[in-house]
Amino acid sequence: MMDWDALEKMCMTCTACGLCATRHHVVFGVGPRDADVMFVGEGPGEQEDLQGEPFVGPAGHLLDDMLSIIDLSRENCYIANIVKCRPPHNRDPLETEQDACIGYLRNQVALIRPKIIVCLGRIAAKRLINPDFRITREHGSWVQKNGVWMSAIYHPSALLRDVDKRPETFDDLLSLREKIREIQARI
Length: 187
Ligand code: URA
Fold this sequence. Notes:
Blueprint: H1 4-12, E1 37-41, H2 46-51, H3 58-69, E2 77-81, H4 95-112, E3 116-120, H5 122-128, H6 135-138, E4 143-145, E5 148-153, H7 156-161, H8 166-185
The structure holds uracil (URA).
Uracil is lined by residues 41-45, 48, 54-55, 57, 59-60, 81.
């Protein structure tokens, strides 16, 4: 395991997959490095690639609103992605690109030691919870893996496209708030 400085340095200059050829910025992740709650998306979009920060485009604005519903914000949770460089035209990151990048996220998780990880969308849920994860059926459910509570909710981009998914996501957010209360009551 690398410390934060070594990890960030290596990630910022990474050439382990083809995405390095088209990126403007590596999007490492943001937030307190002792956060209880971590959100993981799939990969940077256009704005994220230009600014070097996760979830700063349209989906990011919705994510901020979703966080605020349950009294979370960028000040108290860590936000990262499965792949740190933008896939061209926002296509899904390839399995090989995810394989090349996942070590950075695993190292981030090992350093942060979050109590809760929330996957944003199908790609992160399949990668972190279960390769057969079905987001439509399993969003909002909880599993514990290596002592960390894990769940997935719809990706904010999906909620922008399909507002009918929003009420279910509201329930999932309330369930997340409840889980946070549980783990914080235990400390
Ligand atoms: N979508 C993601 O999955 N991650 C981002 O950082 C932005 C949009």
